[in-house]
Structure formats: C-alpha cells, structure tokens
Amino acid sequence: MNQSRWRALLRKPETSSFLILCLAIAFFALANDRFLSPLNLSNLLAFLPELGIIALGMTLLLTAGEFDLSVGAVFAFCPVISLLLMQHAGMDLGLALIIGFALTAAIGLANGLFVTKIGISSFLVTLAMLLLVRGSTLFATQGFPLASFSGDTFLRTLLAGSFYVGQVRLHASIIWFVVLAALAYYVLNYSKLGNWISAIGSNRNAAIARGVPADAVKIALFMVTSLLAALAGTISALRIASASPVAGDQYELEVIAMVVVGGTALTGGRGTIIGTIIGVFLLRIIRNGIVLVGVPGLAFNIFVGGLILVMLVVHSLLHKRSART
Q: How much is the pTM?
C-alpha cells in the first residue's frame, strides 16, 4: 500500500476507533487472563449484539441529522406489551409480537411526524416520547417484571436461541446483528437512500432542492430505529425469559456514545456502520474489562465520558485535516 493510501486510511474515523479497540483488548487481556476465557467471551457476546442492533438504527438517524432518545423505553415496551397480550388476551407469541412491533412502529411514526411536520427538535420530541413510553410501561406492569414467555418454540429459538462455536456460547442475536449490519452498510454506502440520508444530514434544504423527499426519509428512519429497538428488546426478553418495565434504562445514551465513538457525526451528514460496530465492541469491552481488573462498575461512566471526549477531539481533527486537503 503506497503512502497516499496509508494517509487516506489514517484519516478515516474508523481507524482511530479500531486502534483504541485493539489497545483495549490487549490491555484487558494482559491485565486479567480471564478476559479471553470462553466463559467471559460468552458473557460479553450475549448482550453486545442487542445494543448493537439499536446502534445501527441510531447511526442512520444521526447521519440524517436527527436522534432518538426513546429507544431505551421502546426496548422495554415491545416485549412487555407482547407478554401482557399473551397473558390477558390469550394471544400466541407470534400475534402478540406483531401487535407489539406495530405499536412500536407507530411510536417511530409519531416521532417522525412531530419532527418533520410540526418542526419540533428531535431532542424534545423523543425526550417526551421516552417519558410517555416508559411511564406507560411502568403503569401497565405496576413496576414489576413479567413472567417468562411461553409457546412458539420455533420463534423463540429464531430470536433467542443459542449455539456453540468451540467453547464459546453464542446467541441468535449475533446473527441478527451481523445480517442487519451488512444491510445497513449496503444502504448507507451503496444505495440511493444512503445518498439521500447523507445529503439530508449535510444540508436539508439543498437536498430538498435536488428532489430528495427529506421528510419521508426521516419519518422512515425514526420508524426503523424504533423497530430495531423493539427487536433488540424482544430478543433480550426472550433470552432471559422475562420482560422488565425498566429494561433499557439509559440505553439511549450508551447507544449514542457507541455511534459517536465510532465516528458518526452528531451534526449529521457523516455516518459509518463499520465505525458503529467498532464503537459497540469498544464500549462493551470496556464495561466488561474494568470489572475484571477490579475497577468498580459504577466508574464505567467516567471511562465512557473520557473516551467520548477523546474521540470527539480525534474525529474533529481528522475531519478538519481532510477538509484542508
């Protein structure tokens, strides 16, 4: 690889994130030999894809210049509503999930309509939706977790089954994450929709002048993000055989951190699915690793806050350098 290609590679936001990821893996592996043990890798990979699925939708939405603070509440809402329908309406798992996902899509639709048609900022709209959805979920359950899902073994296996690769236990969520990540990568980088998303995030008015249906694209992205959060929450609930009304608390902040650390711009116009995948692994590895080396788990936010600031500075410097050249 010639020098110019090396420079181009180093200027990519994903590169700096990947280097920090490698350093984190090396540090925790040397600090505690249990870090790379099959048991710890199984625990690490059990939950990681679920947050990753939400992060994929958030990446697309942030690239378009918007974000969604209600994803954590939606994460709990869909499985809770589905389980309530099974318990009180006698529905089977498949039908209950269809209704749960339909209601989730309606939440995303409402977010998109308030933002695009009324002109309220996505921060305020989705913050209000966070409170509405979380409050409704808590009220419906009186704050108590619900009993395990039952019925439709095939559907439960499809969403939350597990298998072994060597001694490492993996869950179906990793397959969902890989497939959805590949689809999101294609959409953002090789499709007309991806061009529209980036154009809207860079300059909405210019995009509209060129015939881009900006409002329709944003509404669709809000719906996709809500549906992905619902899928992640359903997979999680089926995996642990319980639906909790407080599941997903503060996930919205962690997901945004993953996306930003990966190199997607908060201001819109620049998104990277590869960077998001790296960000997902980086933050989950840090959360897992600091516990193994004896750092209190409550200190996780300190590390994340510092990491976000560092990566924001790095990505800003790289972006300015690319703009000058």
A: 0.93
